[in-house]
Each structure stands twice: as structure tokens, then as C-alpha cells.
Inverse folding.
């Protein structure tokens, strides 16, 4: 059964809120309508003519990319030239297009966590913090016997997560009172008669960005006609977000060995490295895509090496002089690790909603570089 584009984008922005994107970026729905229906999703790093052809052949009606197809403001849409030609084809095919770019770089569970996981890094932390997720406490009063249904709905919407633990709530029994007036349709009790009901005070934590979704899910699952609930801002700091990650290899390796590990895990035939080849590597800083700007952050974190892409000549020199090895493994290789991760995430989220929408990963090679 198809779902709306709005449902898909809500799930994507649960993982990577648009507010995390750099102000120069262009993320979100790029082509299509939030009311359009989606039967099949294709996830790719880029949107090219070959990727569009792949989507058409597979019967996909929604494409999610990491790199925005529409990045800079368009001065005109010439259908005989790119990108206007492709925009016309996309619209005529009835395919929607969505981009999650720097917000997916920043987000927990995004590009950089996928890259760190691929390399087997442990004890990972954000390399350059931009902030923490704001947290809130939500309290709702539920008739006894219905608390598990409400808890499950709220948890599925993103509440109750503390670290690697989900469904974290506290429940206190008590007595609720209410008097249904004329026009009321009470779940318990009678109109005009004061009712005393056994209720459970259910409280949990929720990221402020997910408040609306959690409240909506809670109200839908709650049996009462009018639901009593409270929201409190918290001073607790949520998860840190920002660019890059730094973590530890389980076993130290010499730099050439680590380079071989990178080539194996990222499935690449070559890379560029600057630094002392005999140096041991255990603490690793990474940034998918162009991340040479994080050199000082890597040095401050005590990293032995910075793995990233698009490193310039003088940046490599500066890294060597700073005592930090730098590896350029290519823009494509350091970011395409997110594609299978994003596929798995979206499949799981849709399954939790009881939706059977197919999600597939693109097999098209969009890296423009060839090695001769």
C-alpha cells in the first residue's frame, strides 16, 4: 500500500532534521508534492541520467539522494540542456526527488557514523561539535490497562530513547477525576457524573525536534476523547551533533596496514596518503566527503590520522607538518557507505508503521573519476 511523500520525509527528517544542514545547503523535497503517493523508493548518492533510468526501470516513484540535484538557484529551466532536461523527464515520469546532504553528515546515524562503523571504529565521538539536541519531558495520564499501547506508540515516534536503550519511561499509578459535560462522549463514566478512574502517569524523554510527531502518535493511541498531558523543557543535553567522528581501532596498525584496511572496507583500488608511513595508527578521525577543514580538530582530538576526501596539495603538507597523517580515499567512497544504511533505516521505520513500501539501493556508479 503506498504512503505519502510526507510520511517518507517525516521519517528522513527524524533521522536527519533539516535544521542541521549548513545554511548554504539545499536539502529537503526538491521535486514533487508532499501529497504524492510512494510505492517504491530508490536511494542513491547522486541523481544522474543513469540513476533516473534505473529508477524508471525498477518502477521507483521516489528518489532519495545525498548530494542535492538542485543545489544552486536556477536562473532558467532549459529543457534542451541540463539540468532542465532531467527535471522535465523526472516530472513527466511522476517521480519525486529528495536530498539529505549536510544534515545527514551532521546527524547521529548519518554519513560519518556509517563510515566509522564500516571501518570498525570504537568509542566514537563527534569530531567538531555544532551543538546538542534539545530535550523535553512529556507526561501523559492514561487509564490503567492502556499504558503499554500509548508507550509503544510514543516510542515508535521517537520518544523514550536514552543512549542504546529504547522505551525508557517511568510509570506511577494514581486516581484521575473528571466530570463529562453536555456534548462529551466519555471513554469512561457518564455525562453529568463525577468519575474517578485508575490512571497511570506515563512520563518519558523526547527530542524537541520530534515533539509534534510524538504528541500526534500519543493522541492517536490514547483512548480518551480529551487527553491530559504536559510538556517540560529540560536542561539535560541530548546527543551531540556535528561534523566528522573520531574513534579507536581495536588493534593499532601501522599506516600502510591501515590504508589497506580502508581500501578493503571501502572497496577501492587506490587512495592517497600523506604522513610518516612507519607511524602507528590507533586513534582515527574521519569525515565523509570533503573534510580537510577538520585537520585542526583531528590534531586537537589526538588523532593519528584523518581519513577524508578532496584534500588539496597544501592541505596535505599542513597535515604532515602538524604530525597528523591524512588519507584521501575519494569523495564517492567515503560517502556511499550511507546508501545501504539509509535503506535499512527506512525499511525498518516503514515496517514499524505497518507499511509495505519497497526501498532499494542504486547500483549505478556515479563517481565521475576514472583511474588510468
Amino acid at each position: 500500500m503506498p504512503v505519502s511523500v510526507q510520511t517518507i520525509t517525516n521519517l528522513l527528517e527524524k533521522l536527519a532534521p533539516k535544521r542541521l544542514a549548513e545554511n548554504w545547503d539545499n536539502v529537503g523535497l526538491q521535486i514533487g508534492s508532499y501529497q504524492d503517493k510512494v510505492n517504491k523508493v530508490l536511494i542513491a548518492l547522486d541523481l544522474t541520467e543513469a540513476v533516473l533510468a534505473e529508477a524508471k526501470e525498477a518502477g521507483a516513484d521516489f528518489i532519495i539522494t545525498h548530494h542535492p540535484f538542485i543545489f544552486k538557484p536556477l536562473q532558467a529551466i532549459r529543457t534542451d540542456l541540463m539540468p532542465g532536461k532531467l527535471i522535465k523527464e523526472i516530472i513527466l515520469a511522476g517521480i519525486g526527488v529528495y536530498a539529505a546532504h549536510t544534515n545527514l553528515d551532521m546527524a547521529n546515524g548519518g554519513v560519518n557514523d556509517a563510515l566509522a562503523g564500516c571501518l570498525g571504529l570504537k568509542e566514537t565521538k563527534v569530531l567538531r561539535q555544532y551543538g546538542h539536541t534539545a530535550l523535553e519531558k512529556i507526561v501523559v495520564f492514561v487509564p490503567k490497562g492502556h499504558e503499554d499501547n500509548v508507550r509503544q506508540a510514543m516510542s515508535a515516534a521517537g520518544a523514550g530513547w536514552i543512549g542504546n536503550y529504547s522505551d525508557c519511561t517511568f510509570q506511577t499509578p494514581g486516581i484521575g477525576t473528571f466530570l463529562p459535560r453536555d456534548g462529551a462522549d466519555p471513554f469512561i463514566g457518564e455525562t453529568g457524573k463525577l468519575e474517578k478512574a485508575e490512571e497511570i502517569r506515563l512520563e518519558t524523554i523526547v527530542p524537541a525536534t520530534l515533539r509534534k510527531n510524538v504528541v500526534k502518535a500519543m493522541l492517536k493511541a490514547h483512548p480518551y476523547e480529551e487527553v491530559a498531558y504536559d510538556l517540560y523543557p529540560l536542561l539535560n543535553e541530548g546527543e551531540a551533533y556535528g561534523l566528522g567522528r573520531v574513534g579507536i581501532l581495536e588493534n593499532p596498525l601501522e599506516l600502510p596496514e591501515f590504508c589497506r584496511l580502508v581500501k578493503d572496507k571501502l572497496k577501492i583500488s587506490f587512495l592517497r596518503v600523506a604522513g610518516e608511513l612507519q607511524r602507528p595508527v590507533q586513534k582515527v578521525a574521519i569525515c565523509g566527503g570533503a573534510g580537510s577543514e577538520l585537520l585542526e580538530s583531528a590534531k586537537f582530538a589526538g588523532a593519528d590520522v584523518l581519513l577524508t576526501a578532496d584534500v588539496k596539495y597544501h592541505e596535505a603538507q599542513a597535515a604532515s607538518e602538524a604530525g597528523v597523517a591524512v588519507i584521501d580515499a575519494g569523495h564517492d567512497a567515503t560517502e556511499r557507505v550511507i546508501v545501504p544504511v539509509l535503506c535499512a533505516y527506512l525499511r525498518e521505520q516503514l515496517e514499524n508503521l505497518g507499511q509495505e513500501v519497497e526501498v532499494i539501493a542504486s547500483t549505478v556508479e556515479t563517481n565521475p573519476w576514472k583511474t588510468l
User: Anything to note?
Assistant: The two ends are 47 Å apart (CA to CA). The chain has a mean pLDDT of 95.
